[in-house]
Specification:
There is one protein chain. This protein is an alpha+beta fold. It has two domains: 72 residues, no CATH class; 90 residues, no CATH class. The chain is built from six helices and four strands; from the N terminus they run αααααββββα. Strands 1, 2, 3 and 4 form a four-stranded antiparallel sheet that branches. A hairpin with a 6-residue loop joins β3 and β4.
Length: 177
Amino acid sequence: MIHQMSYKLRENIHYFSGKLCIGMGKVLQRFVEEMVYGIQAQGSVRLSDVARALDEKKSLKKVIERLSRNLSREGLAEKIGESVLREGALKVKDDSLLIVDPTDITKKYAKKMEYLSQVRDGSDKVLGMGYWVNTVVGVEVGSSEIAPLVHKLYSQKAKGVKRWGWLKAVRRPMRRR
């Protein structure tokens, strides 16, 4: 029974990651599939935890290095973000609600992270260092299903960043429906 559930979970993750990685190649598709599985299995986004979940015969250090190398590929986050938006837009109808949540992530102990800026920690209601996050989801009235569209982390200290510039990206796939 557990073997069947594990197989079904892997099958669903394979299908999901395949939709996210259209046109990205087999290496990136395998990487995304492994990351989704590892995060799901361990409940953690740390590469060491993800690598342990994969339970490969290679050394843990080598698996972490491979995951790290793939994670740093240029444009990967943008490609996956576009795929999520494309898939989510298919579920949004004319009378759907688009919910925008501008929020933040504070990094209490970070000192040297790139482009740290001052944000207001909504949980603790204090100012701290961190990043802004814009999230948009589509919701059908009377339904519990949520269609993720955008989840974009940014810093106003980064060059060329416009806080609401990402809204144009949401409009494009909505018009194509």
